[in-house]
Design goal:
7 strands, 17 helices, DNA recombination, elongated, DNA binding, Integrase-like_cat_sf, Tyrosine-type recombinase/integrase, DNA polymerase, domain 1, alpha+beta, three-stranded antiparallel beta sheet, disordered C terminus, 52% helix, 4 domains
Amino acid sequence: MKKATDATFKEDKFEIHHGFRIRLIETTAGKRYQVDLGRKSGKHVRKTCKTKDAAIGWAQKKSIEAGNKGIAALRFSDEQKTDAVEALFLLKEYGVNLRAAAKFYIKHHQKVDSSNGFGPLVEQYIQKKERDMKRGDLRPRSFSEIKKWLKPCKEAFEHMAVDAVEPKDIDVFLDEQGIQGTSRANLKRYLGGFYNWAMREGKATANPVKRTRQTVMESHTPGIYTPKEVKAIFKQAEELHPDLVPYLALAFFAGVRPEEITRLGWKDVDLNLGEIHIRADQSKTRSARIVTMPENLKAWLLKYRKKDGKIFPYSATTLKRWRVKVYQKAEAPSIQDGARHTFATFCFALEGLDETLHRLGHTDSKMLQRHYKGLAKNRKAQAQSYFQIKPATAGKVVQIKKSKAA
């Protein structure tokens, strides 16, 4: 029986050189020679070379390296040998070898300071974002979100070097915290932003967030209000907090985002043309747009309009308190982004995809199709009823006449 060492490329497609098997692989691009080093840390280690000589040379190099490591091991003192045996005994229960244990120790015991520490660098990043906010380059809400999402990350990895945090560390942290879906995606987005900054500053060599597990996003149908519920909401708002009505009208009948409404002033509402002018600095997407008002929205704004100032000149706390009270009195459920979802559904039913896309300020039709197309189906009659919701008494449009030239 022929020994493996007697194998040839011609007869067996492999040969043994310097203790390693070299296999001949024939492809459309030509011959390749693959050196098999066996398994290392549970993984098969192979090297493919273009020529036979290159493969033999690489096998020789690895053979010498293995021999040197073996000689070094023979030079261990009795104390070192005893330590190694005891360490292996302690690690046996965990299925970990000495190399893995040493790497883990080094990773978690690096010297950490302001130049490479995860915690100190997060602080520097937040300070930088605060300066951006004060210059007007970052909105206060965005700054608050950055601080909120990076806080748990800082607590988890504060004592580690920024480059020591690996993708699996982030995945394990998110799993242990039970962070899933949209929250998981948000945290990863802000953590990824931090690492991108650290790389630009030369503080990190890679962004581990890019190699974390893909976030599973559950698709769900947005909740919406019925015309009956919306009527009840406006009835209670008029009775309890009339100053809340313009805010609700823009949300329910124009689909304007909550944060955009709080930035709008009465000067941005043109009742003569029936338009809402949302400037780039007011828009969430930083893109200006003009929203056409349906007739019922115009009626609500005419009744409650003011000469100038903010449409909703109160704090976020007041907004929340008033809205909760109004919805409770109206016996209407609390639905996240419910007003915008309701508008999108009924606008889609009457006006179609393109007009709804424009009014919402969206650039991607896929999300709109996915969430609202099914909801809008067979709701045309309901949509017509929805856009007929008006105040019992309405104001009048005052035409602004241009002065004649002298």
